[in-house]
Amino acid sequence: MNKIIGFFIFIFCVYSVFDALSNSPSEEFTQYQISSVHDGDTMRVRRPENEELKVRFACIDAREIGQQGGRSDLNFLISLLQTHDNRVKLQIMGKDRFGRTIAVVWAGNVLVPLAQVEAGQAFVYHRYKDDCPYYQEIKEAEAIAQKNKVGLWGEKIEYPWEWRRRNKK
């Protein structure tokens, strides 16, 4: 039974990669150098002209650093970005209420929020689905990860938005 589940997960991942490749950003997207990674869904990047942006990932919400599992989400993201020389392409969606740039993040041909959700290292942020052009793909990946108890789905769940509400300063 585990081999069958593993096979279907493998097929889904291969499909997701090919689907993401067909939707990957064109070469006209500006490439950014990562300056720092704050947590599993926020980082700072530099443009070629040296302007720095604080970027909040569209589509997902990762656990906070002070939250159980938050360091795991951060470390997964750092590892993923390092495999692409800490360079990303951004599909900018706008600004949030804190002035951060909201963007879909690509590392090479990898749709970063999709990879995070597939690995069980982030949640789909349903509240802001209108800012996510890949919402359906990421939502489907989350359902599979949840069903198979991948990453955070194998743990006691506390959604980041609930944790933030409970831990307001």
From TrEMBL:
GO terms for molecular function: endonuclease activity; hydrolase activity. The keyword Iron does not apply. Transmembrane segments: none annotated. Keywords: Endonuclease, Hydrolase, Nuclease, Plasmid. Residues 28-155 form the TNase-like domain. The keyword Nuclease applies. It comes from the Bacteria. InterPro entries: SNase_OB-fold_sf, Staphylococal_nuclease_OB-fold. PANTHER family: EBNA2 BINDING PROTEIN P100, SERINE_THREONINE-PROTEIN KINASE 31. This is Nuclease (SNase domain-containing protein). It comes from Cyanobacterium aponinum (strain PCC 10605).
